[in-house]
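Hey,
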Amino acid sequence: METPSLTQKLGDECYAVFGIMDEWRKGQAMRTRTMTVSPPAAPLVFGAIVLALLLLRPTAVQGQELGAEFVGELPTQGGIALMTWSGGSVEALEDAASEVTSVWVTSGGAFVGYHPDAPGFVNARFWALFPEGQVPSQPMVVALPAAAGVDFDRTGNLVRDNPGLPLGVWFLLYEAPGAPALTAELMFTTASQCIADGASMDCDDIEVGTRARVRGAEVDGVVQVATLEVEGEANEAAASIVCSTAYRVSTSEPLTDVDTVVFADDDSVQSIPYIYLEFHAEYTTGGVDGERALRLWVTPTAEEEVIVSQLFQLPQDAAPVNQFVGGHGFTGLTYAYDPVSGAELQYWCEAI
């Protein structure tokens, strides 16, 4: 029997790609990125794929089992690729797929996927196709996470619908040296991976106030999330405290400035000056005197005279309890007025 040439083999794989495209056009669901090829362009695309596969040197994603690997060209910017599984055990496939988002085969005209980070029941249908524990050599569609350069790596608290921020948008509230209250808008894509307690989780299940490490690519001021890893809650007493302010020059005018300051679990004094009033906040951990506390006060801007002052004594072994409705945290909403200009400053603090 004549051995198929390399061109013939590549042609067969390319026809397999178009078979996959046809399934997509028929409305088969696939939880990864899709591609659409219009019929008139198919011959040109086919020729381009064959030429590219002939010119590119194949790469392999190899497992620990000798010879068990994915063979094909990996997309450098993430996405999907048609690769060939060389054949091997279930364990070898799991190992070789550890760095990808998902692996897909077809069964009865439908896609069946394997997700490395998903719990067992999610992949049950995939493994049911290989009851003997061996996965024969065959083409597979491999989905890889986006490979955009990660230039954002920060740990902070997740917030949404906070005063002064766009509604319905997730932000990471974090600190940097010399900049205690920074926010980064987050954008989640199908390639974003959320992790809690070492296991994959649905990014739709994240909650306001969760402390997390976010890695991704910042584009035009928006962070495209590559990974979001929820941090443990071993020390609730170390929960961050966020104090928010809203200012206007007169009660007859609308609020013109909304700001925040953030306190981690270390001693800190911060202030926010406005035209006529200045907000001050001091947080102490109690490491010296055993009294953990938050002091808030308002003065005329650049003056020492105190208009209003409050002291909140906090437990050493627990986070403050946000007990006030309206999102006004554990302090409630306070109003302060400048006796000369009539300017108004509203402020409140919450544990996150």
